[in-house]
């Protein structure tokens, strides 16, 4: 592999719950050098940390073993290395679990490199309580007694020692999503840590791939306007990347979906604010001049990304307890369904006010009328609506009161309400601060 | 005509902000879209949702406009009370805007 002039990187998951069969197809037929699984959303790690406190042997991605069981034998046979943030809040335990699985499957010589160092909760509690939260500007201390987790977005540099080992599987916790794709490019092509132009192009590769099926047509179809062939058997993407960072995004021949300039443009700008300044731990990537050109069927060439020197700080996501949400829903149908839904909303609002819950932040809405677009006026009455009430409360008990008041519409509300559901959930919210780089020194442990 | 005839859209979430991408099917329509889809008009179209201001970036080589809708996500994905906390469905709403 060392002498190859281009490498092939696939995306095996775009979020924690993503489908597994497309990853298997990609592993089998993608002729991949690397297969990357991105499975860690903003607050996932806080939830994992809570789980780890209850069960010290847990706290890694719940689908880790199912995914590995599906792809590890194939990847080992084909010489494809796996990179993933499925370590979540417990990467070391995740590494041990993968080794145990390898033994169970009769796979020999498996090594797992575990990247740690993203967990900065202790350091923040000791030295960082004065740091301002990025969105509100309030000091971190304002969340102090509610903090659950604090994890820095590590960069590709943290993954390089793991890639230099002979581990076939590399597991981490919080690492910037595109960095999991950039790291093997830096490793393979020997890109310097300050080669901002190539690092920017590598971030482009990562950004295009990190949501997996979103670039192969998995979040694109709009019948009659944007049709996607064989969406049911959507294939996941892979990138062929050259030493200069130029890349072609494609997918396994015969798989469902499509890779077009249009699908790639949607993904290129997805979740990007200023396209000229996409802040990453390794580089400030510049996508403002990126060009996308068709290069045959289901092949799009992406070039002209660049970059500026990396930021001095690392972004840290902090997870914290933020009260509860009580929610209830119930449906109405037929003539007058909107009027009955509106009556029901008024009843619940009055009853919650009478119960002393009127001051809490709340949503009172009719799904099918105004739940997504609050100010929309519907011209004709829908044939059915679904009432939804959601209230933020400080205690679980109050959240349950909210949910119960909706359910109670069965016998205390308008005619013909049906299909009531209720839920109470504890809110784990995420905020962010910036910390000096040296607060999150990464280290690698090779198991096996 | 409606924007839907000329362009496709996608939203993404970033904190309490929604990113809104508008991509012309034919890049030659970009100037027309740029002239009519001003940040002020887009904010007005999302009345009741966008609490802050709207930024706009133009990417001519992609035939695309990129909007950032500040204060659009009811506090952000992780704590929002909204049914669609990510604001994923906001993108389709723009397709209904009139373009001359």
Tell me what the structure shows.
- The complex is a heterodimer of chains A (448) and B (100).
- Chain A has 448 residues and is α+β, with helices and mostly antiparallel strands.
- Helices cover 29% and strands 27% of the residues of chain A.
- In chain A, helix 3 packs across helix 4 and helix 7 crosses helix 8.
- The model of chain A has no long low-confidence stretch (mean pLDDT 96).
- Chain B is of the alpha+beta class.
- Chain B has a single domain, classed as Alpha-Beta Plaits (2-Layer Sandwich).
- Chain B has 3 helices and 4 strands; from the N terminus they run ββααββα.
- In chain B, strands 1-2-4-3 form a 4-stranded antiparallel sheet.
- The N and C termini of chain B lie close together (6 Å).
Report the major sheet of chain A.
10 strands, mixed
Mean pLDDT across residues of chain A: 96
Helix content of chain B: 10-25%
Question: How far apart, in Å, are the first and last alpha carbons of chain B?
Answer: 6 Å
Shape of chain A: globular
Describe the oligomeric state of these chains in a short phrase: heterodimer
Distance between the termini of chain A: 23 Å
Describe the secondary-structure layout.
The complex is a heterodimer of chains A (448) and B (100).
Chain A: E1 6-13, H1 21-29, E2 34-37, H2 44-54, H3 64-78, E3 81-84, H4 91-104, E4 112-116, H5 121-127, E5 147-152, H6 156-164, E6 169-172, H7 179-189, H8 196-209, E7 237-242, E8 247-251, H9 261-268, E9 278-279, E10 284-286, E11 291-294, E12 300-303, E13 306-308, E14 313-333, H10 337-354, E15 362-367, E16 384-393, H11 396-407, H12 409-412, E17 418-436, E18 443-447
Parallel strand pairs in A: 1-2, 2-3, 3-6, 4-6
Antiparallel strand pairs in A: 1-7, 4-18, 5-14, 7-8, 8-12, 9-10, 10-13, 11-12, 14-16, 14-17, 15-16
Helix pairs in contact in A: 1-3, 3-4, 6-7, 7-8, 10-11
Chain B: E1 7-14, E2 17-24, H1 30-36, H2 39-45, E3 54-59, E4 64-69, H3 90-94
Antiparallel strand pairs in B: 1-2, 2-4, 3-4
């Amino acid at each position: 592999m060392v002498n190859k002039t281009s490498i092939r990187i696939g995306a095996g998951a775009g979020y924690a719950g993503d489908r597994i069969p497309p990853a298997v197809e990609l592993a089998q037929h993608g002729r991949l050098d690397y297969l990357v699984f991105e499975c860690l959303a903003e607050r996932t790690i806080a939830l994992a940390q809570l789980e780890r406190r209850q069960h010290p042997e847990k706290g890694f991605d719940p689908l880790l073993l199912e995914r590995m069981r599906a792809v590890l034998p194939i990847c080992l046979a084909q010489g494809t290395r796996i990179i993933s943030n499925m370590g979540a809040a417990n990467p070391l335990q995740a590494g041990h679990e993968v080794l145990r699985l390898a033994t169970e499957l009769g796979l020999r010589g498996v090594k797992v490199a575990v990247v740690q160092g993203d967990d900065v909760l202790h350091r923040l509690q000791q030295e960082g309580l004065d740091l301002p939260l990025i969105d509100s500007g309030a000091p971190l201390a304002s969340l102090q007694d509610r903090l659950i987790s604090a994890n820095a977005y590590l960069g590709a540099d943290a993954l390089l020692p793991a890639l230099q080992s002979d581990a076939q599987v590399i597991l981490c916790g919080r690492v910037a999503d595109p960095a999991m794709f950039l790291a093997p490019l830096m490793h393979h092509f020997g890109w310097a840590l300050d080669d901002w132009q190539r690092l920017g192009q590598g971030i482009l590769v990562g950004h295009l791939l990190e949501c997996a099926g979103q670039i192969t047509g998995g979040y694109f179809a709009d019948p009659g306007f944007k049709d996607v062939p064989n969406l049911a058997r959507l294939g996941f993407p892979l990138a062929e990347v050259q030493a200069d960072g130029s890349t072609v995004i494609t997918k396994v021949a015969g798989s469902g979906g499509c890779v077009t300039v249009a699908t790639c443009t949607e993904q290129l700008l997805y979740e990007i604010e200023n396209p000229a300044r996409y802040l990453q731990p390794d580089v400030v990537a510049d996508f403002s001049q990126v060009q996308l050109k068709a290069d045959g069927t289901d092949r799009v060439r992406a070039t002209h990304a660049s970059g500026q020197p990396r930021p001095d700080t690392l972004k840290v996501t902090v997870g914290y307890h933020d009260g509860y949400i009580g929610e209830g829903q119930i449906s109405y149908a037929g003539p007058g369904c909107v009027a009955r839904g509106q009556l029901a909303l008024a009843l619940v609002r009055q009853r919650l006010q009478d119960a002393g819950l009127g001051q809490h932040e709340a949503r009172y809405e009719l799904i099918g009328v105004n739940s997504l677009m609050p100010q929309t006026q519907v011209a004709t009455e829908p044939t059915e609506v679904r009432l939804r009430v959601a209230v933020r409360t400080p205690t679980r008990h109050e959240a349950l009161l909210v949910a119960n008041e909706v359910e109670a519409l069965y016998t205390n509300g308008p005619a013909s309400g049906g299909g009531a559901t209720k839920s109470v959930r504890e809110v784990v919210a995420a905020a962010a601060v910036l910390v000096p780089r040296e607060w999150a020194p990464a280290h690698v442990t090779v198991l096996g | 005509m409606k924007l839907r005839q000329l362009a496709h859209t996608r939203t993404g979430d970033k904190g309490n902000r929604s990113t809104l991408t508008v991509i012309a099917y034919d890049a030659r329509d970009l100037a027309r879209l740029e002239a009519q889809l001003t940040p002020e008009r887009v904010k007005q179209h999302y009345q009741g949702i966008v609490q802050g201001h709207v930024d706009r970036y133009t990417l001519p080589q992609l035939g695309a406009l990129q909007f950032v809708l500040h204060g659009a996500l009811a506090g952000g994905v992780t704590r929002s009370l909204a049914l669609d906390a990510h604001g994923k469905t906001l993108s389709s709403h723009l397709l209904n805007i009139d373009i001359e």
